[in-house]
Amino acid sequence: MEKVWIVILALAIVTFATRLSFLGLLAHVELPRLLRRALAYVPPAILAAIIVPQVFPAVNGAPSLDPARLLAAVIAFLVAWRTRSTLATVGIGMLALWGLQALMG
């Protein structure tokens, strides 16, 4: 059990150090325009990597289609596009998912 806490502490330190390197050390440095443009694509890429496996879950190694999840994702996308509110997107998306799962069984 002691080794687990050592690993958790080490990972916390590494995570903090990587965040500090960008936020603390590079906060006053002007990044090149090309790098700023490239970094603008990081949040959508991470969001897609989190959402796509949830919308198209793998069954026996192959992606499958869950209509309730797909429709809830479309609803959440429309809410995000229209409101630009993270809270509204997550809230309405989750309500849509739960409602659609209850309706579709």
Short description:
This protein has helices spanning 2-25, 33-39, 42-55, 67-83, 86-104, and strands at 58-59, 62-63. By secondary structure, it is mainly α.
Keywords:
77% helix, 105 residues, two-stranded antiparallel ribbon, mainly alpha
Describe the overall structure.
With 105 residues, this protein is mainly alpha-helical. The chain folds into two domains: 30 residues; 64 residues, no CATH class. Helix content is 77%, strand content 4%. It contains five helices and two strands. The longest helix is centred in the N-terminal third of the chain and has 24 residues.
Radius of gyration (Å):
19 Å
Mean pLDDT: 90
Low-confidence stretches: none
Helix content: over 70%
Helix and strand content put the structural class at mainly alpha
Percentage beta strand: under 5%
Estimate nothing, just give the exact number of structural domains: 2
Strand order of the largest sheet: 1-2
Major β-sheet profile: 2 strands, antiparallel
Task: Report the strand count.
Answer: 2
Order of helices and strands: HHHEEHH
Number of helix segments?
5
Shape label: extended
Distance between the termini: 41 Å
